[in-house]
Amino acid sequence: MDFGQAYSPDNLRFLMEGLGMTLRLAFVAIILSFIVGCLLGVIRYAKMPVASKLIGLLVETIRNLPLLLLIFFARFGLPELGIKLSPFWAAIVALSVFEAAMISEIVRSGLKSVEKGTIEAARASGLTYIQTLRHIVLPIGLRRMVPPIVSQFISLLKDTSLAVIVSLAELTHNANIVMGQDIAIVLPTLMLVAAIYFTVNYVLSIIARRLESRPT
Amino acid sequence: MIDITVLTDHWDSYMIGLRNTLFASLMALAGSFVLGTIIAVFRISPIAALQVFGTAYVELFRNIPLLLVVYMFFLGLPAIGIALDGFVSGTLGLMVYTSAFIAEAIRAGIMAVPQGQTEAARSSGLTYMGTMRYVVLPQAVKIVVPPITNQFLNLVKNSSILGVVAGLDLMYYGDLVNAETYNTVDTYVFVALFYLIMTLPLAYASRLLERRLARSG
Protein backbone atom coordinates (compact mmCIF):
# COMPACT_ATOMS: atom_id res chain seq x y z
CA MET A 1 0.00 0.00 0.00
CA ASP A 2 1.47 3.30 -1.07
CA PHE A 3 -0.32 6.15 0.66
CA GLY A 4 2.19 8.75 -0.53
CA GLN A 5 1.64 7.97 -4.19
CA ALA A 6 -2.11 7.56 -3.75
CA TYR A 7 -2.49 10.91 -2.04
CA SER A 8 -0.16 12.83 -4.34
CA PRO A 9 -1.30 16.41 -5.04
CA ASP A 10 -2.31 15.50 -8.58
CA ASN A 11 -4.44 12.59 -7.47
CA LEU A 12 -6.05 14.57 -4.68
CA ARG A 13 -6.87 17.42 -7.04
CA PHE A 14 -8.38 14.95 -9.51
CA LEU A 15 -10.49 13.35 -6.79
CA MET A 16 -11.66 16.76 -5.55
CA GLU A 17 -12.75 17.62 -9.09
CA GLY A 18 -14.73 14.38 -9.01
CA LEU A 19 -16.30 15.37 -5.71
CA GLY A 20 -17.24 18.72 -7.26
CA MET A 21 -19.04 16.94 -10.08
CA THR A 22 -20.75 14.57 -7.61
CA LEU A 23 -22.02 17.51 -5.55
CA ARG A 24 -23.15 19.41 -8.64
CA LEU A 25 -24.98 16.35 -9.91
CA ALA A 26 -26.61 15.73 -6.53
CA PHE A 27 -27.57 19.38 -6.07
CA VAL A 28 -29.35 19.76 -9.42
CA ALA A 29 -31.04 16.36 -9.06
CA ILE A 30 -32.17 17.13 -5.50
CA ILE A 31 -33.82 20.40 -6.55
CA LEU A 32 -35.50 18.89 -9.61
CA SER A 33 -36.64 15.70 -7.90
CA PHE A 34 -37.99 17.66 -4.95
CA ILE A 35 -40.12 19.95 -7.11
CA VAL A 36 -41.41 17.17 -9.36
CA GLY A 37 -41.87 14.77 -6.44
CA CYS A 38 -43.95 17.25 -4.43
CA LEU A 39 -46.11 18.02 -7.44
CA LEU A 40 -46.77 14.36 -8.21
CA GLY A 41 -47.35 13.56 -4.55
CA VAL A 42 -49.96 16.29 -4.13
CA ILE A 43 -51.76 15.29 -7.33
CA ARG A 44 -51.94 11.69 -6.14
CA TYR A 45 -53.05 12.72 -2.65
CA ALA A 46 -55.79 14.96 -4.06
CA LYS A 47 -57.03 11.99 -6.12
CA MET A 48 -57.43 14.01 -9.30
CA PRO A 49 -59.36 11.86 -11.77
CA VAL A 50 -57.24 10.03 -14.38
CA ALA A 51 -54.09 12.06 -13.50
CA SER A 52 -53.74 10.35 -10.10
CA LYS A 53 -54.12 6.89 -11.60
CA LEU A 54 -51.69 7.56 -14.43
CA ILE A 55 -49.09 9.07 -12.14
CA GLY A 56 -49.58 6.19 -9.73
CA LEU A 57 -48.83 3.69 -12.48
CA LEU A 58 -45.78 5.64 -13.64
CA VAL A 59 -44.41 6.09 -10.12
CA GLU A 60 -44.92 2.40 -9.34
CA THR A 61 -43.05 1.37 -12.49
CA ILE A 62 -40.10 3.70 -11.97
CA ARG A 63 -39.76 2.90 -8.26
CA ASN A 64 -39.44 -0.77 -9.04
CA LEU A 65 -36.76 -0.49 -11.71
CA PRO A 66 -33.01 -0.32 -11.05
CA LEU A 67 -31.69 3.24 -11.26
CA LEU A 68 -28.73 1.94 -13.24
CA LEU A 69 -31.14 0.89 -15.98
CA LEU A 70 -32.70 4.35 -16.07
CA ILE A 71 -29.32 6.09 -16.35
CA PHE A 72 -28.27 3.77 -19.11
CA PHE A 73 -31.58 4.27 -20.89
CA ALA A 74 -31.42 8.06 -20.61
CA ARG A 75 -27.95 8.10 -22.16
CA PHE A 76 -28.26 5.43 -24.86
CA GLY A 77 -31.97 4.74 -25.31
CA LEU A 78 -33.38 8.25 -25.55
CA PRO A 79 -31.19 9.25 -28.54
CA GLU A 80 -32.94 6.50 -30.52
CA LEU A 81 -36.18 8.30 -29.68
CA GLY A 82 -34.72 11.61 -30.83
CA ILE A 83 -33.63 12.98 -27.44
CA LYS A 84 -29.86 13.44 -27.19
CA LEU A 85 -28.45 14.15 -23.72
CA SER A 86 -24.90 14.71 -22.55
CA PRO A 87 -23.66 12.29 -19.86
CA PHE A 88 -24.30 14.96 -17.22
CA TRP A 89 -27.89 15.61 -18.27
CA ALA A 90 -28.60 11.95 -18.88
CA ALA A 91 -27.55 11.29 -15.29
CA ILE A 92 -29.59 14.28 -14.05
CA VAL A 93 -32.72 13.19 -15.92
CA ALA A 94 -32.50 9.58 -14.72
CA LEU A 95 -31.64 10.52 -11.12
CA SER A 96 -34.39 13.15 -10.97
CA VAL A 97 -37.05 10.87 -12.45
CA PHE A 98 -36.11 8.03 -10.09
CA GLU A 99 -35.84 10.13 -6.92
CA ALA A 100 -38.96 12.15 -7.80
CA ALA A 101 -40.90 8.89 -7.86
CA MET A 102 -39.54 8.07 -4.38
CA ILE A 103 -40.23 11.56 -3.04
CA SER A 104 -43.77 11.60 -4.43
CA GLU A 105 -44.47 8.50 -2.33
CA ILE A 106 -43.04 10.18 0.77
CA VAL A 107 -45.14 13.29 0.12
CA ARG A 108 -48.29 11.29 -0.51
CA SER A 109 -47.96 9.19 2.64
CA GLY A 110 -46.96 12.26 4.64
CA LEU A 111 -50.13 14.06 3.58
CA LYS A 112 -52.18 10.93 4.16
CA SER A 113 -50.85 10.71 7.71
CA VAL A 114 -52.67 13.92 8.66
CA GLU A 115 -55.60 12.77 10.80
CA LYS A 116 -59.09 12.77 9.32
CA GLY A 117 -60.47 14.56 12.36
CA THR A 118 -58.09 17.49 11.86
CA ILE A 119 -59.19 17.86 8.24
CA GLU A 120 -62.88 17.54 9.13
CA ALA A 121 -62.50 20.14 11.86
CA ALA A 122 -60.88 22.55 9.40
CA ARG A 123 -63.60 21.98 6.84
CA ALA A 124 -66.34 22.32 9.45
CA SER A 125 -64.86 25.61 10.64
CA GLY A 126 -65.47 26.99 7.17
CA LEU A 127 -62.17 26.52 5.33
CA THR A 128 -62.43 25.51 1.67
CA TYR A 129 -60.74 22.36 0.38
CA ILE A 130 -57.77 24.32 -1.00
CA GLN A 131 -57.44 26.36 2.20
CA THR A 132 -57.52 23.18 4.29
CA LEU A 133 -54.81 21.69 2.10
CA ARG A 134 -52.70 24.83 2.25
CA HIS A 135 -53.03 25.82 5.90
CA ILE A 136 -53.63 22.50 7.66
CA VAL A 137 -52.59 19.43 5.67
CA LEU A 138 -49.42 20.75 4.00
CA PRO A 139 -47.79 22.31 7.10
CA ILE A 140 -48.46 19.26 9.28
CA GLY A 141 -47.63 16.75 6.55
CA LEU A 142 -44.47 18.54 5.38
CA ARG A 143 -42.97 18.52 8.85
CA ARG A 144 -43.41 14.75 9.01
CA MET A 145 -41.83 14.34 5.58
CA VAL A 146 -38.55 16.07 6.41
CA PRO A 147 -36.63 13.09 7.83
CA PRO A 148 -37.52 10.59 5.08
CA ILE A 149 -36.84 13.22 2.40
CA VAL A 150 -33.39 13.95 3.83
CA SER A 151 -32.71 10.19 3.88
CA GLN A 152 -33.77 10.12 0.25
CA PHE A 153 -31.29 12.89 -0.53
CA ILE A 154 -28.54 10.82 1.08
CA SER A 155 -29.55 7.94 -1.16
CA LEU A 156 -29.43 10.30 -4.11
CA LEU A 157 -25.93 11.45 -3.27
CA LYS A 158 -24.78 7.84 -3.09
CA ASP A 159 -26.65 7.02 -6.28
CA THR A 160 -24.72 9.62 -8.26
CA SER A 161 -21.88 7.08 -8.25
CA LEU A 162 -23.90 5.03 -10.74
CA ALA A 163 -23.18 7.72 -13.34
CA VAL A 164 -19.97 5.72 -13.74
CA ILE A 165 -21.69 3.76 -16.51
CA VAL A 166 -22.05 6.86 -18.67
CA SER A 167 -18.41 7.81 -17.93
CA LEU A 168 -19.29 11.01 -16.14
CA ALA A 169 -16.25 12.36 -14.26
CA GLU A 170 -17.74 12.19 -10.77
CA LEU A 171 -15.98 10.98 -7.63
CA THR A 172 -16.28 7.21 -8.16
CA HIS A 173 -15.31 7.51 -11.80
CA ASN A 174 -12.23 9.56 -11.03
CA ALA A 175 -11.31 7.18 -8.21
CA ASN A 176 -11.50 4.37 -10.72
CA ILE A 177 -9.01 6.15 -12.96
CA VAL A 178 -6.65 6.88 -10.06
CA MET A 179 -6.78 3.23 -8.99
CA GLY A 180 -5.83 2.20 -12.51
CA GLN A 181 -2.39 3.79 -12.09
CA ASP A 182 -0.95 1.21 -9.77
CA ILE A 183 -2.24 -1.71 -7.71
CA ALA A 184 -0.38 -0.34 -4.67
CA ILE A 185 -2.73 2.67 -4.46
CA VAL A 186 -6.03 0.83 -4.87
CA LEU A 187 -6.76 0.39 -1.17
CA PRO A 188 -5.63 3.85 -0.01
CA THR A 189 -7.76 5.42 -2.75
CA LEU A 190 -10.81 3.32 -1.85
CA MET A 191 -10.38 4.31 1.80
CA LEU A 192 -10.11 8.01 0.99
CA VAL A 193 -13.12 7.99 -1.33
CA ALA A 194 -15.18 6.04 1.22
CA ALA A 195 -14.19 8.63 3.84
CA ILE A 196 -15.28 11.49 1.56
CA TYR A 197 -18.69 9.97 0.80
CA PHE A 198 -19.11 9.03 4.43
CA THR A 199 -18.33 12.51 5.70
CA VAL A 200 -20.74 14.27 3.33
CA ASN A 201 -23.54 11.80 4.04
CA TYR A 202 -22.92 11.57 7.75
CA VAL A 203 -23.30 15.31 8.13
CA LEU A 204 -26.57 15.10 6.18
CA SER A 205 -27.83 12.23 8.33
CA ILE A 206 -27.01 14.07 11.55
CA ILE A 207 -29.14 16.95 10.28
CA ALA A 208 -31.90 14.48 9.44
CA ARG A 209 -31.75 12.93 12.90
CA ARG A 210 -31.89 16.31 14.57
CA LEU A 211 -34.95 17.22 12.54
CA GLU A 212 -36.52 13.87 13.41
CA SER A 213 -36.09 14.30 17.15
CA ARG A 214 -37.54 17.79 17.08
CA PRO A 215 -41.07 17.71 18.52
CA THR A 216 -43.70 18.09 15.80
CA MET B 1 -43.20 -0.29 -32.30
CA ILE B 2 -41.38 -2.72 -30.08
CA ASP B 3 -39.35 -5.29 -31.95
CA ILE B 4 -40.17 -8.59 -30.30
CA THR B 5 -37.35 -10.39 -32.12
CA VAL B 6 -34.92 -8.64 -29.77
CA LEU B 7 -36.42 -10.82 -27.06
CA THR B 8 -37.08 -14.02 -29.04
CA ASP B 9 -33.69 -14.11 -30.80
CA HIS B 10 -31.82 -13.51 -27.55
CA TRP B 11 -34.08 -15.42 -25.18
CA ASP B 12 -31.18 -17.50 -23.87
CA SER B 13 -29.15 -14.40 -22.95
CA TYR B 14 -32.09 -12.90 -21.08
CA MET B 15 -32.71 -16.16 -19.24
CA ILE B 16 -29.09 -16.62 -18.18
CA GLY B 17 -29.02 -13.02 -16.99
CA LEU B 18 -32.30 -13.41 -15.13
CA ARG B 19 -31.13 -16.63 -13.51
CA ASN B 20 -27.86 -15.07 -12.37
CA THR B 21 -29.65 -11.99 -11.04
CA LEU B 22 -32.02 -14.21 -9.07
CA PHE B 23 -29.16 -16.36 -7.84
CA ALA B 24 -27.08 -13.37 -6.73
CA SER B 25 -30.12 -11.77 -5.08
CA LEU B 26 -31.07 -14.92 -3.15
CA MET B 27 -27.52 -15.49 -1.93
CA ALA B 28 -27.11 -11.84 -0.92
CA LEU B 29 -30.55 -11.91 0.68
CA ALA B 30 -29.80 -14.93 2.85
CA GLY B 31 -26.36 -13.60 3.73
CA SER B 32 -27.51 -10.08 4.53
CA PHE B 33 -30.31 -11.41 6.72
CA VAL B 34 -27.91 -13.46 8.83
CA LEU B 35 -25.28 -10.71 8.94
CA GLY B 36 -27.91 -8.02 9.59
CA THR B 37 -29.37 -9.99 12.51
CA ILE B 38 -25.94 -10.41 14.07
CA ILE B 39 -25.18 -6.69 13.72
CA ALA B 40 -28.58 -5.78 15.18
CA VAL B 41 -27.90 -8.03 18.18
CA PHE B 42 -24.49 -6.34 18.57
CA ARG B 43 -26.14 -2.93 18.56
CA ILE B 44 -28.60 -3.74 21.34
CA SER B 45 -26.23 -5.89 23.38
CA PRO B 46 -25.13 -4.54 26.77
CA ILE B 47 -21.45 -4.98 25.81
CA ALA B 48 -20.01 -1.60 24.82
CA ALA B 49 -17.41 -2.92 22.37
CA LEU B 50 -20.05 -4.82 20.40
CA GLN B 51 -22.32 -1.78 20.38
CA VAL B 52 -19.58 0.42 18.97
CA PHE B 53 -18.70 -2.14 16.33
CA GLY B 54 -22.35 -2.58 15.33
CA THR B 55 -22.96 1.15 15.12
CA ALA B 56 -19.78 1.76 13.12
CA TYR B 57 -20.70 -1.02 10.71
CA VAL B 58 -24.20 0.29 10.10
CA GLU B 59 -23.15 3.93 9.76
CA LEU B 60 -20.25 3.12 7.45
CA PHE B 61 -22.16 1.00 4.96
CA ARG B 62 -25.29 3.13 4.99
CA ASN B 63 -23.31 6.22 4.07
CA ILE B 64 -21.12 5.03 1.22
CA PRO B 65 -22.35 4.08 -2.25
CA LEU B 66 -23.03 0.42 -3.00
CA LEU B 67 -20.69 0.66 -5.98
CA LEU B 68 -17.83 1.55 -3.67
CA VAL B 69 -18.57 -1.46 -1.46
CA VAL B 70 -18.53 -3.66 -4.56
CA TYR B 71 -15.23 -2.06 -5.62
CA MET B 72 -13.75 -3.00 -2.24
CA PHE B 73 -14.30 -6.64 -3.15
CA PHE B 74 -13.68 -6.32 -6.89
CA LEU B 75 -10.61 -4.04 -6.85
CA GLY B 76 -9.58 -3.93 -3.19
CA LEU B 77 -9.18 -7.64 -2.47
CA PRO B 78 -7.05 -8.32 -5.60
CA ALA B 79 -4.71 -5.59 -4.31
CA ILE B 80 -3.96 -7.81 -1.32
CA GLY B 81 -3.74 -10.94 -3.44
CA ILE B 82 -7.31 -12.26 -3.34
CA ALA B 83 -8.84 -12.38 -6.81
CA LEU B 84 -12.64 -12.48 -7.08
CA ASP B 85 -14.73 -12.34 -10.24
CA GLY B 86 -17.50 -9.80 -10.89
CA PHE B 87 -20.30 -12.12 -9.85
CA VAL B 88 -18.78 -13.06 -6.50
CA SER B 89 -17.58 -9.57 -5.60
CA GLY B 90 -20.92 -8.07 -6.69
CA THR B 91 -22.86 -10.54 -4.58
CA LEU B 92 -20.60 -10.06 -1.55
CA GLY B 93 -20.82 -6.27 -1.88
CA LEU B 94 -24.57 -6.46 -2.14
CA MET B 95 -24.72 -8.67 0.95
CA VAL B 96 -22.53 -6.46 3.11
CA TYR B 97 -24.30 -3.27 1.99
CA THR B 98 -27.83 -4.59 2.50
CA SER B 99 -27.01 -6.13 5.88
CA ALA B 100 -26.50 -2.62 7.31
CA PHE B 101 -30.03 -1.64 6.31
CA ILE B 102 -31.50 -4.90 7.59
CA ALA B 103 -29.68 -4.48 10.90
CA GLU B 104 -31.31 -1.06 11.26
CA ALA B 105 -34.76 -2.42 10.45
CA ILE B 106 -34.39 -5.21 13.01
CA ARG B 107 -33.04 -2.90 15.68
CA ALA B 108 -35.85 -0.39 15.12
CA GLY B 109 -38.38 -3.23 15.40
CA ILE B 110 -36.97 -4.43 18.69
CA MET B 111 -36.76 -0.89 20.07
CA ALA B 112 -40.39 -0.31 19.11
CA VAL B 113 -41.56 -2.82 21.71
CA PRO B 114 -42.33 -0.70 24.78
CA GLN B 115 -39.75 -0.88 27.55
CA GLY B 116 -42.52 -1.45 30.12
CA GLN B 117 -43.26 -4.82 28.59
CA THR B 118 -39.68 -5.97 28.92
CA GLU B 119 -39.63 -4.81 32.53
CA ALA B 120 -42.96 -6.49 33.28
CA ALA B 121 -41.75 -9.73 31.71
CA ARG B 122 -38.48 -9.60 33.65
CA SER B 123 -40.18 -8.83 36.94
CA SER B 124 -42.67 -11.64 36.42
CA GLY B 125 -39.69 -13.97 36.53
CA LEU B 126 -38.79 -14.54 32.87
CA THR B 127 -35.07 -14.65 32.09
CA TYR B 128 -33.51 -12.22 29.57
CA MET B 129 -33.65 -14.89 26.87
CA GLY B 130 -37.18 -15.82 27.84
CA THR B 131 -38.27 -12.19 27.66
CA MET B 132 -36.73 -11.83 24.23
CA ARG B 133 -38.22 -15.06 22.97
CA TYR B 134 -41.76 -14.84 24.32
CA VAL B 135 -42.41 -11.12 24.66
CA VAL B 136 -40.12 -8.90 22.59
CA LEU B 137 -39.34 -10.90 19.44
CA PRO B 138 -42.89 -12.00 18.53
CA GLN B 139 -43.96 -8.36 18.53
CA ALA B 140 -40.78 -7.10 16.86
CA VAL B 141 -41.15 -9.58 14.00
CA LYS B 142 -44.48 -8.02 13.07
CA ILE B 143 -42.98 -4.55 12.93
CA VAL B 144 -39.88 -5.70 11.10
CA VAL B 145 -41.38 -7.76 8.29
CA PRO B 146 -42.59 -4.92 6.00
CA PRO B 147 -39.33 -2.90 6.06
CA ILE B 148 -37.30 -6.06 5.51
CA THR B 149 -39.44 -7.03 2.54
CA ASN B 150 -38.74 -3.54 1.25
CA GLN B 151 -35.01 -4.06 1.67
CA PHE B 152 -35.23 -7.26 -0.34
CA LEU B 153 -36.95 -5.30 -3.08
CA ASN B 154 -34.09 -2.79 -3.02
CA LEU B 155 -31.64 -5.65 -3.08
CA VAL B 156 -33.09 -7.08 -6.29
CA LYS B 157 -32.93 -3.65 -7.94
CA ASN B 158 -29.43 -3.03 -6.59
CA SER B 159 -28.22 -6.37 -7.93
CA SER B 160 -27.99 -4.56 -11.27
CA ILE B 161 -24.70 -3.21 -9.90
CA LEU B 162 -23.20 -6.54 -10.96
CA GLY B 163 -23.52 -5.23 -14.51
CA VAL B 164 -20.88 -2.60 -13.75
CA VAL B 165 -18.27 -5.20 -12.75
CA ALA B 166 -19.13 -7.70 -15.52
CA GLY B 167 -21.14 -9.78 -13.06
CA LEU B 168 -23.10 -11.75 -15.72
CA ASP B 169 -26.47 -10.55 -14.40
CA LEU B 170 -29.54 -9.31 -16.27
CA MET B 171 -28.09 -5.81 -16.68
CA TYR B 172 -24.85 -7.25 -18.06
CA TYR B 173 -26.61 -9.54 -20.52
CA GLY B 174 -28.77 -6.60 -21.58
CA ASP B 175 -25.51 -4.91 -22.54
CA LEU B 176 -24.52 -7.91 -24.65
CA VAL B 177 -27.89 -8.03 -26.42
CA ASN B 178 -27.65 -4.29 -27.01
CA ALA B 179 -24.20 -4.69 -28.57
CA GLU B 180 -25.58 -7.31 -30.96
CA THR B 181 -28.85 -5.67 -31.93
CA TYR B 182 -27.97 -1.95 -31.87
CA ASN B 183 -31.50 -1.54 -30.57
CA THR B 184 -31.07 0.01 -27.14
CA VAL B 185 -34.67 0.99 -26.52
CA ASP B 186 -36.21 -2.42 -27.15
CA THR B 187 -33.37 -4.32 -25.51
CA TYR B 188 -33.72 -2.38 -22.29
CA VAL B 189 -37.52 -2.34 -22.34
CA PHE B 190 -37.33 -6.12 -22.06
CA VAL B 191 -34.65 -5.91 -19.37
CA ALA B 192 -36.98 -3.54 -17.49
CA LEU B 193 -39.87 -5.97 -17.85
CA PHE B 194 -37.83 -8.78 -16.31
CA TYR B 195 -36.88 -6.55 -13.39
CA LEU B 196 -40.52 -5.61 -12.86
CA ILE B 197 -41.51 -9.28 -12.87
CA MET B 198 -39.19 -9.72 -9.89
CA THR B 199 -39.82 -6.48 -8.02
CA LEU B 200 -43.55 -5.81 -8.35
CA PRO B 201 -44.63 -8.91 -6.40
CA LEU B 202 -42.23 -7.90 -3.61
CA ALA B 203 -43.60 -4.35 -3.57
CA TYR B 204 -47.14 -5.73 -3.43
CA ALA B 205 -46.26 -8.18 -0.65
CA SER B 206 -44.62 -5.45 1.40
CA ARG B 207 -47.69 -3.23 1.17
CA LEU B 208 -50.06 -6.10 1.93
CA LEU B 209 -48.05 -7.12 5.00
CA GLU B 210 -47.91 -3.55 6.20
CA ARG B 211 -51.66 -3.17 5.93
CA ARG B 212 -52.42 -6.53 7.51
CA LEU B 213 -50.06 -5.97 10.41
CA ALA B 214 -51.43 -2.47 10.95
CA ARG B 215 -54.90 -3.94 11.27
CA SER B 216 -53.94 -6.74 13.64
CA GLY B 217 -52.23 -4.13 15.83
UniProtKB/TrEMBL annotation, chain A:
PROSITE patterns: ABC_TM1
Gene3D superfamilies to which the protein is assigned, alphabetical: MetI-like
Subcellular locations according to the entry: Cell membrane
Coiled-coil annotated spans: none
Record-annotated membrane-spanning stretches: 21-42, 54-76, 183-204
UniProt-listed SUPFAM superfamilies: MetI-like
Family to which this protein belongs: Belongs to the binding-protein-dependent transport system permease family.
Protein name as it appears in the record: Amino acid ABC transporter permease
UniProt source species: Paenibacillus spongiae
Lineage: Bacteria, Bacillati, Bacillota, Bacilli, Bacillales
From TrEMBL, chain B:
Organism domain of life: Bacteria
InterPro entries membership: AA_ABC_transptr_permease_3TM (IPR010065), ArtM/GltK/GlnP/TcyL/YhdX-like (IPR043429), MetI-like (IPR000515), MetI-like_sf (IPR035906)
Subcellular location, principal: membrane
Residue ranges annotated for the ABC transmembrane type-1 domain, each copy included: 18-206
Keyword Transport part of the UniProt annotation: yes
Keywords (A to Z) from UniProt: Cell membrane, Membrane, Transmembrane, Transmembrane helix, Transport
Any matching Pfam family: BPD_transp_1
Transmembrane segments: 21-44, 64-84, 185-205
Signal peptide bounds: none
Record bears the keyword Cell inner membrane: no
CDD domains for this protein: TM_PBP2
Record's bilayer topology term: Multi-pass membrane protein
Annotated localization: Cell membrane
Cross-referenced PANTHER family: GLUTAMINE ABC TRANSPORTER PERMEASE PROTEIN GLNM-RELATED, MEMBRANE COMPONENT OF AMINO ACID ABC TRANSPORTER
Family named by the database record: Belongs to the binding-protein-dependent transport system permease family.
Name recorded for this polypeptide: Amino acid ABC transporter permease
Organism: Paenibacillus spongiae
